[in-house]
Design goal:
The structure holds two protein chains of two kinds. By secondary structure, chain A is an alpha/beta fold. Chain A contains twelve helices and eight strands. Chain A has helices at residues 17-29, 58-69, 79-94, 96-106, 121-129, 131-137, 159-162, 172-179, 198-201, 203-219, 230-239, 249-257; strands at residues 2-7, 32-36, 73-76, 117-120, 146-149, 183-185, 224-227, 245-248. In chain A, strands 2-1-3-4 form a four-stranded parallel sheet, sandwiched between helices. In chain A, strands 6-5-7-8 form a four-stranded parallel sheet, sandwiched between helices. In chain A, strand 7, helix 11 (230-239) and strand 8 (245-248) form a beta-alpha-beta unit. Chain A is globular, with a radius of gyration of 18 Å. Chain A starts with a strand and ends in an 8-residue tail after the last helix. Chain B folds into two domains: 3-98, Alpha-helical ferredoxin (Fumarate Reductase Iron-sulfur Protein, Chain B, domain 2, Orthogonal Bundle); 102-131, no CATH class. Chain B is globular, with a radius of gyration of 15 Å. In chain B, helix 1 crosses helix 6. Chain B is built from seven helices and no strands. By secondary structure, chain B is mainly alpha-helical. Chain B has helices spanning 3-17, 29-33, 44-52, 56-60, 73-77, 84-96, 119-129. The two termini of chain B are 24 Å apart. The chains are: A alpha/beta, B mainly alpha.
Amino acid sequence: MMTFSYYPGCTLKNKAKDLDEYARLSARALGVELEELNEWQCCGGVYPLSKDEIATKLSSVRALMKARDNSGTLVTLCSACHNVIKQVNRDMLTDDYIATRVNNYLGADGQYHGETKVIHFLEMLRDTVGFDEIKKRVVKPLNGKKIGAYYGCLLLRPAKTMQFDNAENPRIIEDLIEALGGEAVIYAERNECCGAYVTLEDKDFAAKRAVSIKNNAESMGAELIVTACPLCQYNLKVNAAGGVEVKYFTELLAEALGVKEGFDE
Amino acid sequence: MSKQKANALREEILRISNVDPLKCMRCGKCSATCPAYDEMNYHPHEFVYMVERGAVEELLDDTSIYRCLSCFACIDRCPRQVEPAKLIEAVRNTCLRKQGANHFKADMLPGKLDPELPQQAVVSAFRKYAK
């Protein structure tokens, strides 16, 4: 069994327990153990873009250091955590201004220079397990169900840092859907913003975004939308109420692998 | 605002954003791709040329700075690597870093909670709207 360091993040311990649990159950069924980091801290949800934001990057760096000292690779699942931690890792590797100041803060805790490899759970499925292998392990195929992958922003952009997939024409979730026996539905707004945290500032604005995305997916024939992000899920489900169901991709995976019943809500 | 103060703010915004507005060729792609375009009085391309000519006061006082979704679309799709979102963030930070200038406060939260709201929304809102 392969073991990776794993960073769940705050939402996966609370409102998005299902996103986390289905991932762990599926990983185990595929021969991968996700070893949760000790005493991880919240990533803050959004990458701080300003050059002089240092303290807001420390929680990510501490997680990265722990992962470096464990397996060297850190697996993330929540899109927001993945985005923040991966962008901070790039800063530590390439930006002397930021790396020097962060390391000054860390002091006796040690030094960090971007050594850890950060991968999303989906990349682990594609590159470590392999979609062909997953296809062989499917016991309850999705029987051609039409499913729209919703990527949102944070898995894909900024593309040169995330290096996740083609940011304007991604395939990774579609390939997973097809490996599980579903039919992937391509629609234009699958990589446009769901409204994100603006739901707290201006709910009507957030709802406009979510409704537009959902309508677009439905108009292309989607019977279900899958996401990797608790906030995308919330906006599409609550701010764009009605219409097709929205689920985490990990639930679909656990279902197809026949391990879904292992989740005790 | 005096010209001197506006200039000092402009320098501050350029420093913390690390953006060079002179690289902009005014193609407008950033605004064309912005999911918050309809909700903004000043749009991403306007942030670039307004900061460039020191018209920062209008930007600091406008709600447009709280409409950016951090979707990174303008960062990725800018053909000149100007990255306007960094400028919008720097203007917002310049505003929020003043004492008592938090746009989102803890006592506003209870009225906005609902049973399904993920923690991620709350931490993200505090990061974007408060210091």
